[in-house]
Amino acid sequence: MKVIIFTATILFCAFNVHAQQNKDDSKAMIDSAIAMMYAQFWETGKQQKNEYYLESLYLLNEQDQPLTYVPSSSKFKFINIYDDRNRKVLSKGIYAWKVLTALNKNKFVITIINFYITYKNRSYNFSNGGGSTTVFEYSCNEDQWKLLTFNNQGI
Fold first, then answer.
1. Domain segments of the chain: what residues?
2. Which tens digit of pLDDT belongs to each residue from 83-141?
3. Any residues with CB less than 8 A from the CB of 30 and at least 6 apart, and which?
4. Structure confidence by residue, pLDDT tens digits, 40-64
5. Which phi and psi (to 5°) does residue 114 adopt?
6. Do residues 45 and 51 make contact, with C-beta atoms less than 8 angstroms apart?
7. Which residues of 139-149 are buried (b: 16+ CB within 10 A; e: fewer)?
8. Contacts of 75 by beta carbon, 8 Å cutoff, 6+ apart
9. How far apart are CA 55 and CA 77, in angstroms?
10. pTM of the full structure
């Protein structure tokens, strides 16, 4: 009986570790998409002598909350858009990237939208300035995700 319980525990742990690995893949793909877009904006900012944009950039998830779980998030600032304490900052306006993800069959699509966000007259204003779409495709033969396309618009 102890052997069966021990074996079941080992199998459960193995499946649990494998399931956690897939979440790390999604984080890595999101981080890659952010890093590619950041690199393009960095090059453009150096050419236009506008590094202030990247130094004051906020990173948001799909619910307009701070996106902090990817390694490249250390390059960004964080803010809770709908918190009353942040209205003063928002009244001056902030630049933000909103990261959206979607899984469609064997393709993982990451869309990053470039926003300028303000709060005036008790109303939020989200001005879209372009963004990027990154598509990863899962290869069953190689058992890994491959970068399919990266399209950046609005720079």
1. 24-153
2. 989 999 999 899 999 999 999 989 999 999 999 999 999 899 999 888 999 999 999 99
3. 70, 99, 101, 110
4. 888 776 666 666 677 789 999 999 8
5. -90, 120
6. yes
7. eeeeeebeeee
8. 38, 54, 57
9. 8
10. 0.77
